[in-house]
Model the fold of this input.
Amino acid sequence: MALSGPQYSTDELTRTKGEMEDFLADEAKLSKTRELLQKVPEDSVEAKTLKMLERTFGCYIMESEEAKTLRAESTKIEGGLEAARNTLTLGATIDGKFEEMSSVGLRNKVRVDPDEATRKACYEGLSKIGDFVTENGFVELVKVRNKMAKKLGFLDFYDYKVSNAEGFGKIALFEILDTLEAGTRPIMESARKQFAAEKGGESALSPWNQGFLMSGDIVRRMDPYFPFEKSVEQWGRSFAAMNISYKQATMDLDLLDRKGKYSNGFCHWPQPAWVKPGGTWQPSTTHFTSLADPSAIGSGYTGLTTLMHEAGHAAHFANIQMPSPLFAQERSPTSVAYAELQSMFLDSLVGDADWMAKYAISREGEAIPWDLVAEQIKATHPYKVFALRGMLAVPYFERALYEMPEEDVTAESIKALADKVEKDIQGGLSARPLLSVPHILSDEASCYYHGYVLAEMGVHQTREFFLKRDKYITDNPSVGPTLTEAYWKPGNSEPFLSLVDNLTGAPLTGDAWVNELKQSVEDVLKEERESYDAKIAQCSSGAPDTDVDLDMRIRIVDGDSVLADTAEDGGFLETCKKFEEYVQTRFAKA
Done:
């Protein structure tokens, strides 16, 4: 994370992680839990808590001593790989000169830079991540992880991870994913043919061309309506209008990219929320990071979407009201899909026309015009399947990776497998090479990406529920209370599939998602124009709120530096103003 102080070293991370896992893997604690379970009424709060303890300890206890040794070895290899990855200098040679950029910066240029040679150079810069990780421990890590999982009786490491997190195994998972894959393959193949025909031939499908030709110019023209310095304020206003509360939480927001920072946005909870014995409430403490570069075209939209996503995670975990912190921690047995559904549902709003009508506002105070929103819909809707297939590629790659015979796991075979899966699932090489996806490296996030796919299925089903019940989502004051009661309060005490069924009244399927992909551009334009016009009319009849209350202390930081603090600066909007001024000063154009 590029923070100073010995407490942030790789060695310290490895040590504390080991201590935590030793605590969770203590067989005496499991035995005591089972003993106590026999002494309390089955339907009591105590029994519910003890069953959660039993589930959690069961995810970490390893009866095999050899598996424990392998686990420690994998943690050490992973720590070394992460330390090496954080020192990797990334960038691209542009006009004969090497320009250093983070992976986020490279991806952004691939998406929006008008010069094809620059886009290609940045894509090649991303591709070098795969060479680096496979030469710096990833091969050994895959082997050790698999050995450990098999010693514990699982098919492989993927089966181990999904069984602990979701409560069902790899085979059951891919029965769900295979249905989605087969159902959307014809849509993907048709879309690729249409894209090539519209955009000038097969070269349009090159990984450094596809994203830009689909919407790169529109992203550039939308950029003025997503000034990054206003993103914190717009997130807060949007969540407050949906009646989302953080229940006295404390949040550190570390939003700006810097050298050596972990290359993905995420949330962690040093203090989970829970209800203590006697009913005392323990609010959550959240550390939240993203990688914004306000000087880059498109960073405002990306940064705001990431903010809505991670703040969605934070809202979810701040509202878990259960009698143990283990109901509110992000590791197993908390379902990946359950966690990601909350954040992805809330970040989906940024793409809605009525949301943009109110919150996509230029520095001059002008709302994004309908014509630009319509152009984005026309450019992207026919090709939304590309994003779905990109999500599917990661779990299909990791499944195949951990199914490889050990003797076949080499740097070259892993890179070849990544290319093969991209071509098979996405129809061609991906603008985000699979080996550049940071999730595959870390223990917590490896064999995790299927959760995004299941969650996205849940997102569309949940959106469909709100639109049928309330007719709208943006600024809907019933959204927060509904999500709190149905999805957030129970924490990981209920299975993901049951929670979706309970809220929407139907089992989880991909039907709502696939139906959206099949919807005509004309129908989407009609629906979105109606919601856009209604929101514009509503906004013109009233002034913005002068107070935003999320029931939370927010500190905006940049590494070790505190930039703004609601406890010191007078409130949420005052803190936003201070952050806005900091960004404008620091990133002022010469």
Observations:
- The first strand starts at residue 91 and ends at 94.
- The chain has 24 helices and nine strands.
- The CA atoms of residues 389 and 426 lie 5 Å apart.
